[in-house]
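Appendix B. Raw example, untouched.
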Amino acid sequence: MSDVIAHRGPDGAGVFVRGRIGLGHRRLSIVDPEAGQQPMAIHDGAVQIVYNGEVYNHPDIQRRLEAEGHRYRTHCDTESILRLYDRHGAGVAERLRGMFAFAIWDSRNETLFIARDRFGIKPLYYALTADGSLYFGSEIKAILASGDIAARFDDTSLPEYLSSHSTFGAKTMYAGIRRLEPGHTLTWRDGQVTIERYWDLSFAHEGEDTRSDADIVAEYGARFREAVRMHLMADVPLGSFLSGGIDSAAITAVMSQLIDAPVRTFSVAFAERDANELQYARVVSKAFRTEHREIVVSPAEFWRALPRLIYHEDEPIAHPSSIPLHFVSRLAVENVKVVLTGEGSDEVLGGYNRYRATMYNMRFGRTFERAVPRAGRAMVRGLIESLPAGSRVRQKLSRTFLTLPADITSLYFDNFAVFGRQWLDSLWSRDARQRLGALSPYATSEQYWDAGDAHTLLNKLLYVDTKTYLHELLMKQDQMSMAASIESRVPFLDHDLVEFAARMPERMKVRGLTTKYVLRQAMAKVLPPEILTRRKMGFPVPVGPWLRGPYRFVLDDFVLGPRTRERGLFDTTTLQRLVASHTSGEANHSERLWSLINLEMWQRMQFDGEAIEDVSRSLARPSPVSVAVPA
């Protein structure tokens, strides 16, 4: 179990086995490399810990505990967690500021206590068997390596995966294997498991800050600077991933103010112009005089790496951007062991355009439904549907309140899904529709929509995305970087900073057409103007054009091939039409096709026993499969 995740900790390994407990650890040495070996113990070995992450308020904790008489044997944050547990028991997690997943075995009461950080920056999976045995690990492959947990596909996860790239909450795509949710603890004793939530993002005081915009901007800027400072805690070299967007640029700018030496920055791109932001990264690098390195990934390198990265992810790769993230991690690890990244800003400060679009659609949609009779609304919808199928006007209007009901499921969950409900209905085979068709693809998201204490539409959207989409991005960030044995940190998700943002008035997040308003204002005199004002690109990956051109054969094998048909999950005619529509240029189905390709690759490697190398080779040459496409 430990060896199979050696990439997460190539600097050291440790095992503790006594009676019915076994703990294994792989170490990536960041803080106190000489003395931080794990498992670590106190009370003559009675209390043992294995831990992944960083506790950024560790220096403050150590000073406070030493003043109270505790004698530290190391300078490592691992010891701070142990000593806080000794004092506060299950209350330890809420006193930590950072990213973490840890397990503490307390032989004094035969109890295992597990905790995961507030946002799920660090992963933790577990399986509880019928006899009460508990297996857990940072990656699913560690649990499977125990030999006592079989890899079985839970196909009830498919509606959520196909609609949203991933499963949410505690559910994974493996039967019997679950994830400990962010902000939760798990306690095992005598074969029984208790799970409790110790933290949740609260908007209870949203909008109560009545200070001027300038005062709020100033405080946000100071808090952001403090978050970056705390994330610099390391006894090894560190740098930053630099995309050229405002988030990574802001982190790089503040790092340059806090570090005496030049910041080491790393960027990745593709040769295609629409998927290359290197010119913006270079603007930031020049402005802050960083030591900058770049890598350009070719299509062949991209596809060749995909199967191995699916192995590292343990589940289908949600986003094509995971692959370049791994390449830039491999570039960075040649120079540093820690990188800071801009993940989390969009979900906290309203950075995605879909938030503005949904706010617009909900506001005008309710007015439209009240003011226009049902027959009039049907006539408008009919006029839009009569437009040419491939026209951009029809595509845009069909995603607005003019054609969709003014409810959150239609205008947000379904509107921005990979496969929406209508798509799923046509995608299922007859057998799959009977088993899976009644399952709501948005059940977990809708539960979160009703669970939080936010009152405004924007904040409710941010709460849901913090629980769902953000978690998906964080797993990508962790697993793709740790596959290269490098630690990534996310200052925008310092929980004190996020809680402050939750209290801010909405105008400080989204103002008119401006997203992340408070961050842009805080950085207005720091970042180059072209970075502050540039349009958000995300991380474009030209999968769509590749699948229309030299990598069309990937569709023939992994979407239309005989092995996909034999699984009996999807309607063959729908798949053929989907591929034909994309390859002809009629529509862009790259997200949908990416989900199907990854699902099939994952099944072949995880359940069919196909070797990673064999799947990689199949991506290096055209497949012999030829499938007729219906007119």
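End of appendix B.
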